[in-house]
Every structure is written in structure tokens, then in C-alpha cells.
Specification:
With about 190 residues, the chain is an alpha+beta fold. The chain has seven helices and eight strands; from the N terminus they run αααααββααββββββ. The radius of gyration is 15 Å and the shape is globular.
Length: about 190
């Protein structure tokens, strides 16, 4: 697969996540402690390359649904704190990555996750490998928006799962803070729900 088509697929998933989050009214959901409907059941990078027709249909349906219809599709798996942290993290989209960054103008991965969860009332340790041990373990196939995902055996990278095979994170100096496809990230180490 060419780099251009991979980039195009990642951009398409980014748009799908944003569209799905907008359709479900993320702020309203966090405020009322409702969960984002799962936009994707298959979430491991080794099984995810493009959205299936069923997944695309689910995203299209979510984008077309009204707020009241969406409320009927509540899924109990996402945590309130995770959704609130995801909403907080999205307010930092586009800011710069800085190794050791703890905000407010630039972030590293664990600084962003720590700050986002602090906004949700959850205190996390500062370092990614410590954050990777907090909360309830979740199987990769059961990831839900708001779950904390660590990468590589060393757990030296961390982000917040946003659905549709995307993670909201501070990835590297050449990428602003935002969504990254699981297929563009290192192997998953742990998934935790707070």
C-alpha cells in the first residue's frame, strides 16, 4: 500500500471520528455521563486497515442521528471519566508535541493524558509506564472511547482511545496533538479503563 493511500485512509478515519463525536454531541454526553457508541469493534492495529462497510454504515448512521435517537444507543462500556478526559484532550488538538511537556502550550504523551484525566477528576501519575498500570485492564477487542492505551512493551507511549481505530495523543515533534490511527502507532501494550 502506498504512503499516500495510508495517509488518505487515516484522514478518512479522523474525519469519521470527528463526525461521529459531533453527531453524538460529545460535550452533552460527557455532561450527562453517557457513553459514545462504539464506532469500531475491531481495534488492534494488526486487524485494522480500513473501515468495513458495516463500520462505515454505523458511522454514517451516527452522523445522521439526532441527539434523542443517539441517546437510545448508549453503551455502558465507556467510563464517565474516560469520556470527560477525551473531551478535555480534544480541546488541546493542534498544539505542539514537546518531550517532557506538561502544557498548556505543548505536551508529551503522558503529560496530555495526565492533564486530560485531571480535568475529569482523576489523578494519574506523570509517566506513561506508571499510567499504564492504573485502572481496570481491558482486552484490546473491548476498547471503548476514553480508555487509556499504552504502546510497546516498555509502555513508553500512551494515549486515549477515541473510537474508529483512532487514538488521541501527543505522538512526536513532527505531528501536532490529535488523532492518530492505531495502524500508525507501535504495538499495543495495555488498555485500561478508569
Amino acid at each position: 500500500m502506498s504512503e499516500l493511500s495510508t495517509t488518505s485512509e487515516s484522514s478518512g478515519r479522523r474525519r469519521a471520528v470527528r463526525s461521529g463525536l459531533a453527531a453524538v454531541g460529545l460535550a452533552a454526553l460527557v455532561g450527562s455521563a453517557l457513553a459514545i457508541p462504539p464506532l469500531l469493534e475491531r481495534s488492534t492495529s494488526d486487524r485494522l486497515s480500513v473501515l468495513t462497510a458495516a463500520e462505515q454504515h454505523a458511522l454514517d448512521a451516527a452522523a445522521a442521528a439526532s441527539g434523542t435517537e443517539q441517546d437510545e444507543a448508549v453503551v455502558a462500556t465507556s467510563s464517565r471519566a474516560g469520556l470527560a478526559a477525551l473531551a478535555a484532550a480534544f480541546t488541546q488538538e493542534g498544539k505542539q508535541y514537546l518531550y517532557g511537556g506538561t502544557g498548556p502550550d505543548s505536551w508529551d504523551c503522558s503529560g496530555l493524558v495526565q492533564w486530560a484525566f485531571r480535568q475529569a477528576g482523576v489523578d494519574l501519575p506523570r509517566l506513561s509506564w506508571d499510567q499504564a498500570e492504573i485502572g481496570e485492564p481491558v482486552d484490546v477487542t473491548d476498547m471503548a472511547p476514553g480508555d487509556v492505551v499504552s504502546f510497546r512493551e516498555e509502555a513508553d507511549h500512551i494515549g486515549i482511545y477515541a473510537g474508529a481505530g483512532m487514538v488521541f495523543n501527543a505522538y512526536d515533534v513532527d505531528r501536532p496533538i490529535g488523532l492518530t490511527a492505531l495502524t500508525d502507532l507501535p504495538p499495543i501494550n495495555t488498555v485500561r479503563r478508569l
